[in-house]
Amino acid sequence: MRTLVKYSAVAAAAAAVLATAAPAAAQETGSSITVLDRGHVDVFGLAYEDGALDLHVHDGENDVEYAPSEVVLAANPEAETVIPAGYDFLGEEGDDVWILPDTNVEGLLFAGWGAEEILPGDFADDTLTITVHDAWGDVDLYTVDDFGDANVLFDSDQGAGSWEATAGSHGHMNWAFGEAGLYKLTVEAEGVLAATGETVSTGEVDYFFCVKG
């Protein structure tokens, strides 16, 4: 497990990102950092335009799109809970965990992914793959079925994790963090063009989360 950078406030995390951890693009352009800590957000927003596949952050509350380097995504203190029975991949039952849930809870980020900007027919089988390659600290992304069973999409203890997104689709998952602090997730999306068979990729893109204790 990697050591987390710990801060007591989102503002401090944003400052740290600007000073030490933000991608070079944000630093070179002087882009400001926006903190998103509640409401509907497509963290992994997908678009394919002018031959390029793009990952962005779509703030659905204000209908604004950001480059990932321009945003810190925050889990407010209300996200803190305890690990339930049967979720061993999160850690020991009863231990503290911070979860952004796959349902809309007032005061928390309702975070997911969106491929509404991907047109049918652009990609083979109308399918793209989203991969989380790496993360600082203890991070798990998962969905839960109607029986309460978890489908783990990414577990930082297990290495990279992937799932498919179809053209025009949209989805949410649970985002679990093992402790308060500043996190970075390295993400990539790719797909095979239907017309040429060429694989196109966003390349690896960094996202920053601040989990407040």
TrEMBL record:
Keyword Signal: yes
Species this chain originates from: Glycomyces rhizosphaerae
UniProt entry keywords in alphabetical sequence: Signal
Protein name: Choice-of-anchor M domain-containing protein
Lineage per the UniProt record: Bacteria, Bacillati, Actinomycetota, Actinomycetes, Glycomycetales
Top-level taxonomic group: Bacteria
InterPro entries membership: Surface-anchored_actinobac
Residues annotated as signal peptide: 1-26
